[in-house]
Design goal:
The complex is a heterodimer of chains A (618) and B (210). By secondary structure, chain A is an alpha+beta fold. Chain A has 21 helices and 17 strands. Chain B has 210 residues and is α+β, with helices and mostly antiparallel strands. Chain B is globular and about 75 Å long. Classes of the chains: A alpha+beta (618), B alpha+beta (210). Bound molecules: magnesium ion (MG).
Chain lengths: 618, 210
Amino acid sequence: MVRILNVAEKNDAAKTLAGLMSGGRSRKREGFSKFNKIYEFDYNLFNQNCTMSMTSVSGHLLGCEFEASHRKWHSCNPVSLFDAPIHKTCPENYKDIKRTLEREARGCEILVVWTDCDREGENIGFEVIQVCTAVKPNMRVYRARFSEMTPGAVTRAIANLQPPDKNVSDAVDVRQELDLRIGASFTRFQTMRLQKVFPNVLADQLISYGSCQFPTLGFVVERYKQVQAFIPEPFWKIKVSHDLQDDGFIEFSWRRGRLFDYEACLVLYEHVIENPLATVLEVKKKPKSKWRPVALDTVELEKLASRKLRINAKETMKIAEKLYTQGFISYPRTETNIFPKDLNLRNLIQQQVNDQDWGEFAGHILEDGPNPRNGNKTDQAHPPIHPTKYTNGLQGNEKRVYEFVVRHFLACCSKDAQGQETTVDISINDEYFSASGLMIIARNYLDVYPYDKWTGKILPTMEEGAQFTPRTIEMNQGETSAPSLLTEADLISLMDKHGIGTDATHAEHIETIKARLYVGLTNDQKFIPGELGMGLVEGYDAMGFHMSKPHLRAELENDLKLICEGKKNRDVVLADQIRKYKEVFVEACTQAEKIDTALAEHFGAPQQLSNQDLLQAT
Amino acid sequence: MLSLVSSVRQWLLQQRKLKVPDDWLEACVDWIQSEHQGPGPLRTSDVNSLVYEQWLVCDLREIEASCLPANLKQQTKVPLSGIFNLQINSVVDVGAPFYGQLQKVRGTDNANVEVTATQATQAARWEPKPSRMLMLSVTDGTHDVKIMEYRPIQCLDVNITPGTKIQVSGNVFCRLGVIMAQSQNIKVLGGEVDSLAETNTPESVLTNAL
Ligand SMILES: [Mg+2]
């Protein structure tokens, strides 16, 4: 019988996939790695009965590293790391996984790669292929493409096996190599130098640099400085209130908004109260809707979970991945917010009808027919994030994230909330004011989506042309306030806007700058830069090439996309980017005192470096 | 000479609705004649327009011109009717925060400050939408008052050169020394005053207002 080796990205995924393909009748065997089991079952593939072995890696199997001659920190001048040879090796703790693959590959004729269908997954797939074909050169290699671990998706994937995509994997190789070269050179340079210059504060500190980390840090510093530099200003406005028949009162706001000149406002105020009779000019009623949410992509999931569930992006993605490997939701790393035409939404909604909280709502959607609100982005690989299987057996944050995905999906497939807005325009001695009210007619999606609020406010009936004397006409003073510090969701929005990292890596970069103490969080979970983070950004900014600004990295991300699409050659991009970053590095070394000076603002006077130190440190 | 001065005075009054101090007018006509180097004598019409051009670029405070009623500032409300030729000393938009305006002028504004995670449809923007209201500090040469853009006045903007002469006309109210002007009340005549153009740039006016 034909033997086929199947390799998934993680043990959980291998287990779920084997369960789905075998109808729950797979046999478990041990491999060399105790975390990565082997699941065996029979399967009819290529019109013949095959024996399938499904096993897994644990993410990347190989890593990039320098040759031994360049590995030690003091072994070389950091600038040589831009050209030093590098190679891929298997780290010690993954050797067992590699041995399992090699042993299994020897006995199999065909390899099917089941890693996650994203860039990293494609690259991991090629690592698996490299290891397996090294021991079994004539192995036939296929790639299974899928966005969720459901029976239908798995059956489709295996019926449509494809060649793996070398372009996508190349893009990851380029990114890895650049991250290694740029990260190692700058990290060594600034760590070795600054440990000597500020021995009291930084003697034991690793001061890492990464081409995504720094722009991420840069956003935090930038906003912090905007807040610091802000100058509050007084303003004045006229406010009119009017009693309602029953009780309470309504407030009319001034069409001029607010004025930043006391005298100007006083003149108009005196003008108004000279003849304080209000005339109703126009009563407008118009339908107003509150839009249901757009189909969910990764960036929105991270932002919404951070804002509405108070679960940070890194934690959210960890949970989402677990839900995905257990088959509860579709693949959570997606840029797509348009549901594909051939996705059977009815079936997905049908699965939710028995839930005691949202089941009834799901039932109503089925009566009217699902009508998803789509966005305008697609990565041509995965659908928007949606539930793939019903469960009420989850706990804690897993339960909350799953519930969010379900409610978001149901809300997206239902209808906008409908209301009627009433606006009353009045004039008092030729100054204009207006009040608006809202009557909610149909809550629709809001019934299943507690994360959005919409509150009505009923205005009294007013006739056009009617006149009344307002209860009060006041001149009030206020003050402008600074923009707020960045929340995690704001920071992700900025990274997304400027193309820093991919939706798959935003959360990691944010965690890195937290772990390095470049930034911290205030009590209300807003980002502030630490002294080290602030000083580094100021130092590099003082050199004038904006290492903390996004364009250098954004250009690379764009090039990576072009490699994936086969529009740019990997070697060209690599050579180009290495040259650019090396230029910046050389220049940074000659202007290194600027970093000392900036940090001295925070850490006190710098140590003078001896000539010997200087030689080593640059 | 005297008849030339009085004919220029007549022309300014009738054609430009402009009354200027006698001593300035005499000195100005004198100067124009002494500067004249052409083959023939100056025509009256040339003198008229040369005097008017001089008026546009002079500083009304230096020639001690005067056309507004005294004590406007002390009175709660005064109707003004007639034609008044005034000089703009400075302009500022009081409809938006000065800090933000200053950043725009200096080119240090940064769109990142507007980025928040809230979707555009529901976002309460950080700053509400401003509506322009210009406040002009003006003088007739003797009395300093303000002009408020009570209704939009298209011919004015924050970049108007300090020292520009304008004509205020019609029936218009002045409250607490502030003229509540509308489009039909204002005509821009032109001109400038070098010293004011230097000191009252948008940047310095905003810095002082902050
Ligand atoms: Mg993955």
